[in-house]
Design brief:
five-stranded antiparallel sheet, about 35% strand, Rossmann fold, 2 domains, alpha+beta, single chain, about 375 residues, six-stranded mixed sheet, 20 strands, OB fold (Dihydrolipoamide Acetyltransferase, E2P)
């Protein structure tokens, strides 16, 4: 599916601003962003429930914008399930086939097949009010898939479920995708959902696509400060480039020295050739930062090392999150995983003096705010 320069406004509000995407056949593709970013509007345009002000949407070479929703070979699973309360599970799933006037002798085996796919074989004669939230969602998925669409659209399908059931359904959804192999386009505001199941993710904000990439790309190499903040937790600082040196003549990689007003000077590797004097944003993920009471005994020149005081430790069983004050203004978040059992509890507590360190390779310049600057 190719989406080209799609824009949509509602009065003075611009919901989509020239969005372009290429979604591969059979891909599990997520549209991720905060409420109001335009992801559901884009999904509704693909489904045929909204018309764009301009732009194109093609599916396997066919322009689908002139087609009504029922002729687009695209089906939607809605957030509120949209089941018929007076029909049984069987009849809800069979409904699309009856609309298409599929012969009765074909309906039974097809409904049975899709109820098996979503593990609801024993619930065919129940009404929706006799089902749990997860079961209702599986009925909605079976009903959407029984028409054998080329693309399945999922609009926040798990948001009404509790956290544990949401995780369980997410795994089931991924397994269903693997079994049937069609394209899934999944709308969510939940970063963990998108990271868990997606082949690729488009991060959206204010009607624009900020970055498209694999979960690894989006998390480890965010393109903007917004992406870095929105995907997981991070430490994000404004900085000025004070030095740049080429690391390897064969590979375009540089070591940049940055000055962070509230923190000090740090080193970061980058594939982008920045220049002294440029203003940039720098990020390092909390789990990349090592914390210890003893000063690390390292002679590596690419290690950033700071001394601080634990301002707030938050113990979560499998990990502890530390808020560490370094100097007067900077607070760095650190996440320490608990891989081993400890009889004595956490070894670092409130008000402890600690050392923080991370490699220059673990930080990242997420955006250049000032394209100027002096000579490298």
């Amino acid at each position: 599916m190719i989406i080209g320069e799609v824009s949509k406004s509602f009065g003075d509000f611009k919901a989509l601003d020239g969005v372009s995407l290429e979604i591969k056949k059979g891909e599990f593709f997520s549209l991720l962003g905060p409420s109001g970013c335009g992801k559901t509007t884009l999904l509704r345009i693909i489904a045929g429930f909204e018309s764009p002000d301009c732009g194109t949407v093609t599916l396997e070479g066919t322009d689908v914008l002139p087609l009504p929703p029922n002729r687009r070979q695209v089906n939607t699973v809605f957030q509120n399930y949209a089941l018929f309360p007076h029909l049984t599970v069987y009849e809800n799933v069979a409904f699309p086939l009856r609309i298409r006037r599929v012969s009765g002798n074909k309906i039974n085996p097809m409904v049975a097949e899709y109820l098996r796919l979503v593990q609801l074989e024993g619930h065919a004669q129940k009404k929706p009010n006799q089902l749990s939230g997860g079961q209702k969602q599986r009925v909605a998925i079976a009903r959407a898939l029984i028409n054998e669409p080329r693309v399945l659209l999922l609009d926040e399908p798990l948001s009404a479920l509790d956290a544990k059931l949401r995780q369980h359904m997410l795994i089931e959804l991924d397994q269903i995708h693997d079994k049937i192999g069609i394209t899934f386009i999944y709308v969510t505001h939940d970063q963990q959902e998108a990271l868990s199941v997606s082949d690729r993710i488009a991060v959206m904000n204010q009607g624009e696509v900020l970055q498209v990439g694999t979960p690894h790309d989006i998390y480890e190499s965010p393109a903007t400060g917004f992406v870095a903040r929105f995907i997981g937790e991070t430490n994000l600082f404004d900085a000025e480039v004070i030095s740049v040196s080429r690391l390897d003549k064969k590979e375009p990689e540089y070591m940049a020295g940055l000055k962070i007003p509230e923190l000090g000077n740090i080193l970061v590797t980058t594939v982008d050739e920045v220049r002294p004097g440029q203003r940039v944003s720098f990020t390092v993920r909390p789990e990349k930062v090592l914390i210890s009471k003893e000063k690390p005994a390292t002679k590596r020149e690419d290690i950033n090392l700071f001394h601080g005081v634990v301002d707030e430790p938050i113990y979560s069983g499998f990990q502890t999150k530390f808020y560490v004050k370094t100097g007067d203004r900077a607070t760095i978040r650190v996440i320490k995983q608990h891989a081993k059992y400890s009889d004595e509890g956490p070894d670092i507590v409130w008000k402890d003096e600690v050392y923080l360190s991370w490699s220059a390779n673990d930080g990242y310049i997420v955006e250049v705010k000032d394209p100027g600057g002096g000579e490298p």
